[in-house]
Amino acid sequence: VVQAMLWPLLPALVLFSVLSVVQVQTAPCQTCRKLTDSFIKGLDKTSNKNFGGGNTAWEEENLAKYARSETRLLEIVEAACEKSDFDCNKLLEQIEDQVETWWFHRQQEAPDLFEWLCIEELPLCCPPGRFGPDCKECLSGPGGVCGGLGRCEGEGTRLGDGECVCDPGYFGQLCQSCADGYYREKSSNHSTPACAACYHSCKKCSGPENYKCLECKPGWLFHDNKCVDTDECGTELARCSSNTYCHNTDGSYECRGCDQACVGCMGSGPARCKKCARGYKLRGAKCLDVDECSERAIACPGLNEVCFNDEGSFRCECADGFIRRDSICVENQPLSNYVCMTSTPHVHEKARE
């Protein structure tokens, strides 16, 4: 009876009156946490609603009735999820019975709705420091979960494998070792010193300076206690496709496109071409655009056409006052006049007959 009265403004709930635990488990922990947080905010918002001023004894009596009433529960539920939040609304539909149970019977003994609903009752979440379907304990060290230097994969949820995802600069089962590119700082007290970044070219080092490298990152050569960039472009290490050239960068290289004037090149610009592209000609040391309009005797042979030079090519367009019709540039007149002009000879021939 309570159920029928409680959800009149949520018609979709009728479709979910009988749901299996498997269906509920499909909702993620973060959705359940968001829903319960919103529910608690609704509790605070409705704590003194419609009361304030007047007969104090009457207010206290009626406020006590309202505090655990179906009316108040419905008000909170209606505002628990945003209309556009599909996951929240879906979960709310699925946990109708559990919400009623907590509201009418379990609030006193289980005041933490999130813990009771999301961890114990459904279950979708785990307590802090635990993960996975069975809420196993995350790996911990002197500094806490993952030694305080990382996070436990899946912590607080029924997901994840519990492995430590270390903070930048750390690695290991409990994130206690310095990762490549980092070194252990010196400490004046008894605490474990932090890991700090090496010079950018060092894979292993004893300090932050460039001369304290112990091992170099790929693309660098160890020389005189320093890591010196390898110029892959000057060796056979670079692999660039046709019509691109090698550009050296710190610790690596990149292939860049040749200038449009080139067919193959050794660097940037029209002066580094191996061969000039069509529409270009070698002048001095550069491949420069050929002006076909001035170099060709008749670049545009069509009647009433004008030549326009483009970079690496040219185009033929109709002269001012002319328009192209049937691949021919004719005087720009209304189409009816054009038809009459072209049909006139036939009329004259018929007249002579």
TrEMBL record:
Q: Name one Pfam family in it.
A: DUF3456
Bridged cysteine pairs (disulfide): C166-C175
Q: Which InterPro entries match?
A: DUF3456, ECM_structural_protein, EGF, EGF-like_Ca-bd_dom, EGF-type_Asp/Asn_hydroxyl_site, EGF_Ca-bd_CS, Furin_repeat, Growth_fac_rcpt_cys_sf
Asked whether the keyword Transmembrane is assigned, the reply is yes
Which reaction does this enzyme catalyse, per its entry?
Catalyzes the rearrangement of -S-S- bonds in proteins
Subcellular localization(s) per the UniProt record: Membrane
The record's Gene Ontology cellular component field reads:
membrane
Q: Which UniProt keywords apply?
A: Calcium, Disulfide bond, EGF-like domain, Isomerase, Membrane, Redox-active center, Repeat, Signal, Transmembrane, Transmembrane helix
Entry-linked CDD domains: FU
GO terms of molecular function: calcium ion binding; protein disulfide isomerase activity
Give the highest taxon in the source lineage. Eukaryota
Q: Which PROSITE patterns match?
A: ASX_HYDROXYL, EGF_1, EGF_3, EGF_CA, EGF_LAM_1
Q: Signal peptide span per the entry?
A: 1-26
Documented EC number(s) = 5.3.4.1
Q: Which family does it belong to?
A: Belongs to the CRELD family.
Q: What does this protein do?
A: Protein disulfide isomerase. Promotes the localization of acetylcholine receptors (AChRs) to the plasma membrane.
Question: What's the protein here called?
Answer: protein disulfide-isomerase
Q: Taxonomic lineage of this organism?
A: Eukaryota, Metazoa, Chordata, Craniata, Vertebrata
